[in-house]
Amino acid sequence: MNGVLDWEFTYAAPTGFAYSPPFCLLLELPELWKQGLDDWSARYEKVLPVFLKVLKDKEQGAIDRGIMKGSDRLSGYMLKSWESGDFWLDYAARKSWAFDMIYWAKIDRRYFGNGNLSGRVKLLTPDGRAEMEGFVQMKLKAEEEGGLPD
Fold first, then answer.
1. What percentage of the chain exceeds 90 in pLDDT?
2. Are both 103 and 122 inside the same structural domain?
3. In which domain of life is the source organism classified (predicted)?
4. How many CA atoms lie within 13 A of 113 on its CB side?
5. Distances in Å between the alpha carbon of 118 and those of 96, 108, 113, 122?
6. 2: number of Cβ within 10 Å
7. Residue 23: is it exposed, middle or buried by C-beta count within 10 angstroms (0-12/13-18/19+)?
8. Domain span including residue 142
9. For the chain, how many structural domains are there in total?
């Protein structure tokens, strides 16, 4: 027996991506929000409960019709993702161009407390700082010469 698989529209991702609420509820990406990330988050927190209530109602309807199990609900996972901050980890993983802003605004403080880049660099050993500085200089030189090495 032979078969053919068409992989054109397949997608694989960590389950955390499905467990995160959709970032498009405000129709504007957090990193492009003119009033800043904190304002985006505050406004998102106002619309998220509405979305989750509708989702929960739809999930309940599917459960009542027997086409879904209660254990398959996403609404609870989505709320937990937002409340725990996992939403931002998943968002930064999906949106590499926004990683730096999201990391310093949401992720770093979650795991390491208050601080900034210069404070984090001070936590490195002298050898670690020297290695990092050498790496930065190599990248700057490569950029000047017209291309960044991998």
1. 69
2. no
3. Eukaryota
4. 1
5. 22, 13, 14, 6
6. 3
7. middle
8. 116-150
9. 2
126 and 71 co-located in one domain: no
108 with 123, same domain: the answer is: no
Residue 137 lies in a domain: yes
Q: In b/e form, how buried is each residue of 43-69, taking b as 16+ CB within 10 angstroms?
A: ebeeebeeebeebbeebeeeeeeeeee
Contact status, residue 31 vs residue 102, Cβ threshold 8 Å: yes
Three-state secondary-structure class, residue 86: helix
pLDDT tens, position by position, 76-111: 999 999 999 999 999 999 999 999 999 999 999 898
- pTM attached to this predicted model: 0.76
Shared domain for 72 and 130, answered yes or no, is no
Answer yes or no: is pLDDT of 149 > 60. Answer: no
Residue corresponding to tokens 């936590």: 123
* CA–CA gap between residue 132 and residue 135 (Å, rounded): 5
pLDDT at 21: 97
